[in-house]
Design brief:
The complex is a heterodimer of chains A (about 60) and B (about 800).
Chain A lengths: L2 H25 L8 H22 L1
Chain B lengths: L45 H12 L4 H10 L21 H7 L7 E7 L4 H8 L1 H4 L3 E7 L4 E6 L7 H8 L3 E5 L3 H36 L4 H22 L1 H12 L6 H21 L6 H36 L3 E6 L4 E6 L8 E5 L7 E4 L3 E5 L1 H4 L5 E4 L3 E2 L4 E2 L3 E8 L5 H16 L5 H27 L2 H14 L3 H4 L1 H15 L2 E3 L4 H5 L4 E4 L1 H5 L5 E5 L6 H11 L5 H10 L9 E7 L3 E6 L2 E8 L10 E11 L2 E11 L4 H10 L3 E5 L4 H10 L7 E2 L4 H10 L3 E5 L5 H6 L2 E4 L5 H6 L2 E3 L5 H37 L4 H35 L1
Parallel strand pairs in B: 15-22, 15-24, 22-23, 24-25, 25-26
Antiparallel strand pairs in B: 1-3, 1-4, 2-3, 5-6, 5-7, 7-13, 8-11, 8-13, 9-10, 9-12, 14-26, 16-21, 17-18, 18-19, 19-20, 20-21
Helix pairs in contact in B: 2-4, 7-8, 7-11, 8-10, 8-11, 9-10, 10-15, 11-17, 11-28, 14-15, 15-27, 17-27, 17-28, 20-21, 27-28
Classes of the chains: A mainly alpha (about 60), B alpha+beta (about 800).
């Protein structure tokens, strides 16, 4: 049953990694505005397609 | 802003085959066909066409594709791109100082009017690619604020100018960078607290599951130790806001909803830690951390909804006041734009038609027409002569006026009234809500029972058994109904209110909504449309020649009556004759010569010429041609179509309906008759001060209004409702702000509010039953940590679903009514 100590360590490390990732994202301001980026994402998609089709035309 | 110019000359034959019936740019129906040469597209007007041409030229046609793919053919109200407004003033030093900060001298924030979809976002954020002076643009869709970085100094006007050409309107706004940053930092910190609580609570739950399912010996000890360690960051860091709020409520000698929360945390943690070291199994780390996590999550939700609402409101307000004014500069002998805040008594200012006078002063021009409707509710402008006093808030209706400033800001007449209003409003905030009251009762009750049972059980068994039972009782007696069901249902109500077009300034309206008995309506702009126009004119009686003469003469005048007539005739194609000998007949009308006939326009009051049920006739114009009467025009305001139904609906609900207006007796009586409101409930010719007094004399009243003259009444009422188009001052003091032009929204709000209160009541009774049973079991010694671990989240879950169900029922009701 000693394997439990290892898995415990792993699970806590994983939790810490996620927490750190979350802290980093928050500090960077990724949760400040939740509406605009979701819209912007739609647009970028569209933009790439448009550029692609432009290239083809050229 | 409504476009007025729809009739542009036809460059192309109108019988051109057209696929579109709606304008490509704004989606309006195409009245006059105006076709683009190359691609055969239809536009409703020159404005939309020039926006299209500009976009096409810059290679930004993607806007239309994007708009269509995302939103179909949704209508939008464009802003006139051809308006002559200049933004050159933004490049002046005094304005730059006002709108930029020292840290970032090259960036400025703008509120953009007319943003409604991702296509707009796309367009605005593409600007840096086409305008070389602009470094970057970042637009937030939730606030409609764009942060713009410029490449060069003193080119700040370039952004609003290009935006205007795209058909939007940009208003520079002053951002309190420090406050903004503080708010951002606080929000982030709260989110981090929530995240920490989530990580710890999640892991504790996993470890606890192992213990409950039979881990024993060294593993059980180790897992519990880990739980203890994971709990520490939650109760110290994540729960910090609760301690802070309790501390400040103690200092203010006030009961706080957080007292029972802190109590549960403290007791639960110390008991569990004590039991761990003692080797006993009464350990509740899982329950405490889950509790804190749920609590923080529901508060975060409420906070973000509230913030979104207040952000919207704040920016809406900023729009209403213009930011600059033409001030005479002695040294250069010219008028210069200066920031409004720089005005001082003695300054000479110049206003043009449509401006709101920002100060009290004396008129220096020989005469001016002023619309005092914000002060009195009456639409017809008054003539003011040289050296007469003019008051802040009135709107200039004649071409131009020069005014010498005597009082500014708070020392103006309206400023003083508003000062009073704000004082009223401050004192109104100190009500206690039902949640606070119940929280106090709840906390003291739990405290008393706990002490009593501790004494009883200690004498029956021993003190450690007594302690354990009482601790289990305190822990299980969960104040969930108040601490997270309340913020959740408040948040949901606020959100559904916004979806229905109501911004809630103060959540206490939900408490007060139930007790409302009297509803006061303002007349102008609330029950009526507030637009002065021609209601009845039998124009066919007149020959083409007469019509042309009338149009030509009325074009000479800027009086609203004249403008109404000009608008009415502008659709017709009339060859205008030359107008001679134009003169005003003092306070009567005008007279002029055209086509060798003398036309005379005389206004008089009209008492009994009502024709249509929805009309409020305020003026009759008689037209004489060479002294013989040829035509009669009735002008006035009209009652909103839905007003009658709304009043009936509210009457059916046993509310007393009142009208409170500053307008003339005759006009107000016409409205009350049409809406069948008894005369004893109708007040006319009321000053703002009197309106406020009347409201104060009636308890449980709601006031619905829009004008500056309503601000006092709105703040004195238990619930003040400002409707769309209200002036800034009314918005500031109102509890609710209706965003659409629909009076039914208010009726809906009553429904939503009472549904919310019902949900709250249901949650409360559930929590009473739950606490009674679970509390009793705890005291009898049946509650083990496993039972607590199940019961606590379960009770929360039931409350949350009950709250969500309350919202769903409401939504279903709305749908049913829509189709019934």
């Amino acid at each position: 049953m000693n394997i439990i100590f290892l898995t415990l360590g792993i699970s806590i490390t994983l939790a810490l990694i996620f927490l750190i990732a979350f802290l980093w994202a928050t500090r960077r301001g990724q949760y400040d505005d939740l509406t605009t980026p979701s819209q912007r994402m739609l647009i970028d998609d569209f933009e790439t397609k448009r550029n692609d089709s432009n290239k083809k035309e050229e | 802003m409504q476009r007025t110019v729809h009739s542009f000359s036809l460059n192309h034959p109108p019988n051109h085959p057209l696929k579109q019936t709606h304008c490509l740019h704004c989606g309006d129906e195409v009245v006059t066909t105006n076709i683009m040469e190359s691609d055969g597209k239809a536009f409703c007007c020159q404005g939309c066409r020039s926006v299209y041409e500009l976009l096409h030229q810059l290679g930004l046609d993607g806007y239309y594709r994007l708009k269509e793919s995302l939103y179909g053919e949704e209508k939008q109200v464009p802003i006139d791109p051809d308006s002559p407004e200049s933004y050159e003033y933004l490049n002046q030093d005094n304005f730059i100082k006002l709108y930029t900060t020292e840290e970032s001298p090259l960036s400025m924030n703008f509120y953009i009017e007319g943003i409604h979809c991702a296509a707009c976002l796309w367009l605005i954020e593409r600007i840096p690619r086409t305008v070389p002076d602009i470094e970057s643009v970042s637009l937030s869709m939730s606030t409609n604020v764009a942060e713009v970085k410029f490449k060069k100094e003193k080119r700040f006007s370039s952004f609003p100018e290009i935006v205007k050409r795209f058909g939007y309107k940009a208003h520079p706004i002053k951002m309190d960078e420090e406050a903004e940053e503080l708010k951002d930092r606080e929000n982030r910190r709260f989110l981090v607290r929530l995240g920490v609580a989530a990580v710890c609570a999640g892991n504790i739950m996993l470890l606890s599951a192992a213990i409950y399912s039979g881990a024993s010996g060294i593993f059980a000890r180790l897992f519990t130790l880990l739980n203890l360690m994971l709990t520490i960051p939650v109760i110290t860091y994540s729960a910090y806001p609760f301690y802070k709020s309790v501390f400040s409520s103690f200092r203010a000698k006030r009961a706080s909803i957080d007292i029972p929360v802190v109590f549960v945390i403290m007791v639960g943690f110390s008991l569990s830690a004590y039991n761990y070291f003692k080797g006993s199994d009464q350990i509740y780390f899982d329950s405490i951390t889950a509790f804190i996590f749920l609590l923080l999550a529901s508060r975060y939700f409420l906070k973000s909804v509230q913030e979104r609402i207040s952000g919207k409101q704040l920016l809406n307000r900023d729009l209403f006041s213009s930011n600059r004014i033409l001030i005479w500069d002695d040294s250069s002998g010219q008028y210069f734009f200066q920031p409004m805040g720089d005005l001082k008594p003695g300054d000479k200012i110049k206003l043009t038609i449509g401006d709101r006078i920002p100060v009290d002063g004396k008129l220096l021009s020989s005469y001016a027409q002023l619309n005092l409707s914000v002060l009195t509710g009456e639409n017809i402008p008054q003539t003011v002569l040289k050296d007469d006093n003019v008051f802040a808030g009135s709107i200039l209706e004649s071409d131009e006026a020069v005014i010498k400033v005597t009082n500014t800001g708070k020392s103006t007449r309206i400023g003083k009234i508003l000062n009073e209003v704000e004082k009223n409003y401050q004192s109104k905030i100190s009500f206690s809500t039902f949640s606070d009251k119940y929280a106090t009762v709840f906390t003291s009750l739990v405290g008393i029972i706990a002490i009593a049972s501790f004494l009883t059980f200690s004498s029956i068994y021993d003190s450690s058994e007594g302690l354990n039972r009482v601790m289990a009782f305190i822990l299980i007696a969960c104040p969930c109904a108040f601490v997270f069901a309340l913020p959740l249902s408040l948040g949901l109500s606020l959100q559904s209110a916004v979806e229905n077009g109501v911004l809630v300034n103060d959540t206490k309206v939900f408490d007060k909504l139930q007790s409302i008995k009297n509803i006061f309506f303002d007349k102008t702009g609330t029950l009526t449309k507030g637009v002065f126009k021609i209601l009845n004119w039998n124009i066919e009686q007149l020959s083409q020649e007469d019509q042309a003469a009338i149009l030509a003469i009325e074009r000479e005048s800027n009086h609203p009556i004249a403008r109404a007539i000009v608008t009415h005739l502008s659709d017709k194609k009339l060859g205008l004759p030359v107008v001679e000998e134009f003169k005003h007949i003092y306070s009567k009308g005008v007279q002029a010569k055209a086509n060798n006939h003398i036309y005379k326009f005389v206004s008089d009051k009209c008492i009994n010429c009502q024709k249509d049920l929805n009309e409020v006739i305020t003026t009759r114009i008689l037209i004489y041609k060479d002294e013989s009467l040829i035509s009669e025009i009735l002008l006035g305001d009209s009652i909103k179509e839905d007003a009658k139904y709304v009043i009936e609906e509210l009457k059916g609900r046993k509310f007393n309906i009142f009208i409170l207006s500053g307008d003339k007796e005759n006009n107000v009586k016409q409205v009350s008759e049409r809406l069948s409101i008894p005369l004893k409930n109708v007040f006319w010719e009321q000053t703002p001060e009197e309106k406020s007094e009347i409201i104060k004399s009636k308890k449980n009243s709601m006031m619905i209004g829009d004008g500056l003259n309503d601000a006092g009444a709105l703040s004195s009422a238990d619930i003040g409702v400002a409707i769309q188009g209200s002036v800034e001052e009314s918005l500031k003091v109102s509890d609710l702000y209706v965003l659409n032009n629909d009076l039914f929204t208010i009726v809906d709000f009553f429904d939503h509010g009472s549904a919310m209160v019902q949900t709250m009541k249901r949650n409360r009774s559930f929590s009473v039953v739950y606490n009674l049973t679970a509390g009793t079991f705890a005291l009898l010694g049946f509650i083990t940590p496993l039972v607590a671990a199940i019961l606590m989240p379960l009770s929360s879950l039931i409350l949350i679903s009950s709250t969500l169900y309350g919202k769903k029922v409401l939504a279903m009701k709305d749908v049913k009514r829509m189709y019934s």
